[in-house]
Design brief:
The protein has 142 residues and is an alpha+beta fold. The chain contains four helices and four strands. A four-stranded antiparallel beta sheet has the order 1-2-4-3. The longest helix has 23 residues. The radius of gyration is 22 Å and the shape is globular.
Length: 142
């Protein structure tokens, strides 16, 4: 068992100290899963996935620009697309987001910039499709 007086401030119970569960009082090796995945799938698979997500962000931004009830806030950077539903306030964004999550359709949280509510797609899963995102946009039309 490890013991360090400087850790006692974190310990409310004499029976448990979080430091007792870590080797050398350090965090787990967070890079190891990524390294194993790259070793298994190769670096090119990651390059392809990132390129696919970035292109999808460009494509969905163009789609947003064609819908009169939506406004693209800025052109996408990498795979993040920020937009707003014209005429909505924060409570409408929150209700829409909750309904989408409850139905299991998607997880899209409202965001804000300079006090104005908005939405954003942060596309990180290479299995996300253009059709998936269009369906989410369609749900904003109601």
């Amino acid at each position: 068992m490890q013991k360090g007086e400087y850790l006692e401030a974190l310990n409310d119970s004499p029976d448990h100290n979080p430091a007792d569960y870590g080797f050398g009082l350090t965090r787990r090796v967070r890079g190891l899963p990524l390294w194993f995945s790259m070793a298994t799938h190769g670096i090119q698979a990651y390059r392809d996935a990132i390129a696919l997500n970035n292109q999808l962000a460009q494509d969905i931004a163009q789609e947003i620009g064609q819908r009169p009830y939506l406004t693209l806030i800025r052109e996408p950077e990498l795979s993040v697309v920020v937009f707003e539903r014209n005429g909505w306030d924060q409570s409408q964004y929150d209700a829409w987001s909750e309904q989408l999550l409850t139905s299991g359709e998607a997880f899209v949280l409202p965001s804000s910039h300079l006090g104005r509510p908005n939405l954003r797609f942060a596309i990180i899963n290479p299995k996300t499709s253009f059709e998936d995102l269009k369906k989410i946009l369609d749900s904003l039309e109601d």
